[in-house]
Every structure is written in structure tokens, then in C-alpha cells.
Amino acid sequence: MGQCGITSSKTVLVFLNLIFWAAAGILCYVGAYVFITYDDYDHFFEDVYTLIPAVIIIAVGTLLFIIGLIGCCATIRESRCGLATFVIILLLVFITEVVVVVLGYIYRAKVEDEVDHSIQKVYNGYNGTNPDAASRAIDYVQRQLRCCGIHNYSDWENTVWFKQTKNNSVPLSCCKAALSNCTGSLTRPMDLYSEGCEALVVKKLQEIMMYVIWAALAFAAIQCCKAVLIASGHVVCLYSTM
User: Fold this and answer.
1) pLDDT tens, 10-36?
2) What is the spatial distance between Cα 45 and Cα 48, in angstroms, rounded to a whole number?
């Protein structure tokens, strides 16, 4: 047993590196998805620090492409120093992902309060005649989530826009998608979405944060498995050279 390392062990570690790269790519994808989705709902959630977990996992995912290459080279060349360094880096990244999970849960818990604080102001500033970004965001959310108003369509009666238009109608984005002749009139409530948007926006944002949490947990599990295999392979190497 003079040679350090076993061919099958090296093959397994190289294969794990490929999984490692794929997982890093998924991590970056999840982070990017959070950014894109947040852009659609940012008017309802003003705390930009919510994006910190997404920023971290994108940075970690990008860094791990490079780290995975180092680990793959160290595995093939059977470099004890390289593998030991690789394991240490994995542990540091693992700690970072634990931080991401903790931050994810913290900001997930804050979503409901943040949306409740800002959604009334957003609806009061709605302008259906010359829509600004916030007004377009309301129409987008109502169409995408199939909702109307904050708690239900009657909330529109308290908005400045409703009082100014004086036509007893809500925005057309409140109309059910299957109806082509809907005018948004409150005299035909059966044509409108009955569910309010606040609860659905909160649910959507919490789901997005859970994607970050689950992605970080899954990747942390992969890292643990790989660190254990590398560490055990390193021990075998030490014994085989004795």
C-alpha cells in the first residue's frame, strides 16, 4: 500500500465535484430568481435588506465554481495539502450557508409586517390614468395572483383614484381572466376576483424566501457529504503511506 489514494475513491470524489458544480449553478439560479421576483413586488416590501440572503448565495455559488475546480485538481493529483485546504474552505462556506438560513428565517418572519405597513400607501397612490411604476405593480400583482384590493375588492372604494374617477369601478386588473366583457363595475362583483392581495403577496414573498432557505440547506448537506468523503479519503492516504 505504497501509493496514496484509490482509483475508485478518486472517481467518486470527481463525480461529487460535478454534482458540486451543478448544485452551485442551482444556487446561483435561485438567487437570481429571488432578485427577479422581488423586482415585481418591491413596492409592497420596502426593506431591501431582505435581498441579503439572495446576494450571499449568488456570491457563494459563483465562488464555489472556482473552489470546485481546485478540489477536482487536488483530488486527481492526490494533493494532501490541497484537499485539506479544500475541506477548510468547505467548512467556511458551510458556516456562511448557515448564516443564510438564519437570515432567511428572520426576514421571512418580517414579511407580513413589512407588507402590511406599505401596501395601504401603495394602493392609495394608484393612478390608473397615467400609471407610474407602483400603479403598474398593483395591476401586475392583481392579474398574476388573481386578487383585488388589499383584503377584497371593496377596499378600492377608500382609495383616492376611486373617488376621483366616480364611476363606481375598480381597475380592470381585478377582472377575472376568463371574462372578456368585464368593466370592473362594482355592480357586478361576480366578475371580480374576491380574494384580497395582501395575504397572497405575503404568501408569495415567504415562498420566495423559503426557496433560499431550502437551497442553502440542500447545498450545505452536499458540502457535508463531500467534506466527510474527502476527510476519510485523506485518512486512508495517511495510513497507506505508513
Assistant:
1) 666 667 677 777 878 888 888 888 888
2) 8
Look-up: residue for cell 458540486? 20
Q: Measured between alpha carbons, how far is 188 from 190 in angstroms, rounded to an integer?
A: 5
Q: Is-contact 80 237, C-beta < 8 A?
A: yes
Query: Count of residues for the chain?
Result: 242
Q: Which of 26, 17, 18 is nearest to 215 (CA)?
A: 26
- Grid cell for residue 8: 475508485
Spatial separation of the C-alpha atoms in residues 108 and 208, rounded to whole Å: 9
Answer whether 0.70 is exceeded by the pTM. yes
Count of beta carbons in the 10 Å neighbourhood of residue 130: 6
Burial (CB count within 10 angstroms: exposed 0-12, middle 13-18, buried 19+), residue 97: buried
3-state secondary structure 27-45: HHHHHHHHHHHHHHHHHHC
Q: DSSP per residue over 41-93, as a string?
A: HGGG---GGGGHHHHHHHHHHHHHHHHHHHHHHHHHHT-HHHHHHHHHHHHHH
In whole angstroms, give the CA distance from residue 14 to residue 20.
9
How far, in Å, CA of 215 to CA of 58, rounded? 11
